[in-house]
Amino acid sequence: GLIDLVIFTKLDRWFRSLKNYYKAQEILDGSHCAWQAIDEDYETLTASGRFKVNIMLSVAQQERERTSERIKAVFDYKRAQGKFLTGGKTVPFGYKVQDNHLVIDPETEPIVQDIFRRVLSGMSYKGVFSAIRAAHPEYQHSYNAMHDLTLRPVYAGMLNGIPGSCPAY
To answer: The pTM is what?
Structure first.
């Protein structure tokens, strides 16, 4: 009851979906508080304004969903081509990205080869970690990172669930 009007720049900066809009609008209505966009002609002071907001949010949400579908289709195509999609992912240790594909990084290859050689020989993970740190002081990853490395399908040549889509160690 202390606020009469909320002012913001653009509608899509405040509401990301119709669901968010309706949740916020319910709270604002319960407090008898309207809102208005500064840079756009949207307001909730009138019935026409509320109607326009509903239409525009529906259109904006549909456009976001269509954009999402297009991006997903592009990513699916790239995955099928065996391309590495970063999307916030880090490149696995021992690899580098070349022409959108993972390739073995010659600089770190000896370390990864040494890790797998020791694990496959039956050495304990703690023993492998100590030996790798001693033999390769440049290897600064944690014990858990080294352990996880040995379990990741990418090192067996499987990227995006597709066997043979990248070089295997």
So the answer is: 0.57
